[in-house]
Amino acid sequence: MSATPAGTFREESGRVAGDLQHRRRIAAAMGKYETARGPRQGAFLSWELGRQALADTKWEAVNRLDEHLERFEKEATARGTQVHWCRDAAEARDAIVGIIQRVGARRIVKSKVMTSEEIHLNSLLESLGFSVVESDLGEYIQQLKDEPPYHFVFPCMHLSREEISGLFHDKLGTAEEHDPEALTMIARRVLREKYVEADIGITGANFVVAETGMISITENEGNARLTAALPRVMISLVGIEKVVPRLGDLALFLPMLATAGTGQPLTCYNTFYGGPRQPGEADGPEEWHVILLDNHRTELLADPEQRDALHCIRCGACLNVCPVFRAIGGLSYGTTYQGPVGSVITPHLRGLQDWKHLSGASSLCGACTDTCPVKIDLHHHLLHNRRNAARERGGVERWVWKAFSFVMRRPFLYRMGMRVARWGRPLHAALLEGGVLDPVRAWTMSRELPELAEETFRERWKRRGGG
Amino acid sequence: MTVTLFVPCFMDAVYPAAAMGMVTVLERLGHRIDFPEELACCGQPPFNAGHWAEAREMARPVLKRLAGAEVVVIGSGSCGAMLKVFYRELFAGEPEEAMAAEVAGKVWEFSSFLVDRLGVTDVGARFARRVTFHDGCHGLRELKIKSAPRVLLGNVRDLELVEMTEAVETCCGFGGTFATKHAAVSTAMGEVKCAAAVASGAEVVVSNDASCLMHLRGLLVRQGVPLQTLHLAEVLVQS
Ligand code: SF4
Question: Which residues does chain B have within 8 Å of residue A18's beta carbon, measured at their own beta carbons?
Answer without folding.
Answer: 184, 188
